[in-house]
Amino acid sequence: MSNEKNSALTFEEALLRLETLVRTLESGNEDLNSSLAAFEEGISLVRFCTEKLENAEQKVKILLSGEGGLREAPLEEQGGTEK
């Protein structure tokens, strides 16, 4: 799957497609060319998902930064209560 096709996917859709590709490859029922194409698509999807996660992480860091600088907090922290 090319990067243009990936950009039309949501993170969740890409992750589901990647899981499908992994199951297909693990089954061992595909010929070499099909397996190679699935592997290539999978690598593209991994890169796409990694980029999306890195962007989300950066947005979270920006949202958590304040006048006192960056404040990292565990994901469990909700409603402004600190542990």
Mean pLDDT: 83
> Radius of gyration, rounded?
18 Å
N-to-C CA distance? 43 Å
What is the number of E strands?
A: 0
**Globular, elongated, flat, extended or rod-shaped: what is the shape?**
elongated
The secondary structure category is mainly alpha
H/E element string? Answer: HHH
What is the helix content? 55-70%
Looking at this protein, list some descriptive labels.
elongated; 3 helices; 83 residues
Structure description:
The chain has 83 residues and is mostly helical. 66% of the residues lie in helices and 0% in strands. It has 3 helices and no strands. The protein has helices at 3-7, 11-27, 32-64. The protein is elongated. The N and C termini lie far apart (43 Å). The model has no long low-confidence stretch (mean pLDDT 83).
Question: Would you spell out the secondary-structure blueprint of this structure?
Answer:
Elements: H1 3-7, H2 11-27, H3 32-64
Helix pairs in contact: 2-3
Quick description:
This protein is mainly alpha-helical and 83 residues long. The protein has three helices and no strands.
